[in-house]
Design brief:
By secondary structure, the protein is of the alpha/beta class. It is 38% helix and 20% strand. The chain is built from ten helices and twelve strands.
Length: 287
């Protein structure tokens, strides 16, 4: 049984042809890399932070990451860490494959089972059932790896609680030590501003203040300072929905020589021209 797409037709186009056109539009967008991806046989991307909103808003930012992935070697497995927007279920993986309008994405059964056997993670369909943060990554991956679609493997992990973040990072590090060709993606948007998000601490110079808030968080990310990042989120009230997946990513790679680089940053207000409601998007690679 496959986990069916739940945001096809809302967060992204619901039919194959329209979705492929939409993804191409993200790459050539003024907010995107402005070119379509192509294979260049570069080194595999180790890790990244990728936004996960509707493609019309976050897709161009996300395409910066997927362009870099397309230029490198296909990872044997892509571990995707997503937040839990619904509050349903526990921190968990999922053994079921995933369905999108572009076909089926296979789960790496070996690694997912290893996580279940060697950590607190469980196979929890409930946590993944209505969660969009992992799903919206998949059509991009299917697009850039369409010639290698049978080799594409993921391990989805919903991070539902701040408990055991370090333990989760430790078991992922064990996997990375055993299997070198693994990429880890943390799915997250940044500041959600507006009354509808319950976060409107300023009414003047809104975009400047939002950017300042986000950039302080990104500075912690660039230092790979998981504890400082978590403390900043708590103290500032920053509404970064994927702060837990980001913290796991930072803890996993804190001793790795990779350097986080910000490829793209903008807000939905720059597209919608609506300062009263704004979500920030950052694309950050670890190279």
């Amino acid at each position: 049984m496959a986990r069916e797409a739940i945001v096809a037709g809302t967060f992204y186009a619901g039919t194959k042809d329209t979705l492929l056109k939409q993804i191409k539009g993200c790459f050539i967008s003024p907010f995107g890399p402005k070119v379509l991806p192509r294979p260049l046989k570069k080194a595999m991307l180790k890790a990244a932070i990728v936004p996960h909103a509707g493609y019309q808003y976050s897709g161009p930012a996300a395409s910066h990451i997927f362009r870099r992935m397309a230029e490198g070697v296909l990872p044997d497995t892509i571990i995707i860490l997503g937040p839990n927007h619904t509050g349903q279920g526990i921190t968990s993986t999922l053994l079921d494959n995933w369905q999108t309008p572009l076909g089926t994405v296979s789960v790496d059964q070996e690694i997912a089972s290893f996580l279940i056997q060697n950590s607190f993670l469980r196979d929890d369909k409930f946590a993944h059932l209505q969660e969009h943060s992992i799903e919206v990554m998949l059509p991009f991956l299917q697009y850039i790896y369409h010639e290698q679609e049978k080799a594409l493997r993921i391990v989805p992990i919903v991070v539902s609680s701040p408990l055991y973040l370090q333990k989760l990072a430790e078991v992922i590090k064990k996997i990375l030590a055993q299997k070198k060709n693994i990429c880890v993606l943390a799915s997250s948007d940044f500041t959600h501003y507006g009354i509808s998000y319950g976060f409107a601490p300023f009414s003047e110079h809104v975009q400047e203040n939002i950017k300042h808030l986000d950039m302080e968080a990104i500075e912690h990310i660039q230092r790979k300072d998981a504890l400082g990042f978590l403390q900043y989120v708590r103290q500032s009230g920053a509404t970064i929905c994927g702060y837990l997946p980001i913290a796991v990513l930072l803890e996993t790679f804190k001793e790795d020589p990779t350097h986080p680089e910000l490829l793209s940053y903008y807000t939905s207000a720059q597209i919608s021209k609506d300062d009263e409601h704004s979500v920030s998007y950052a694309a950050i690679v670890f190279e």
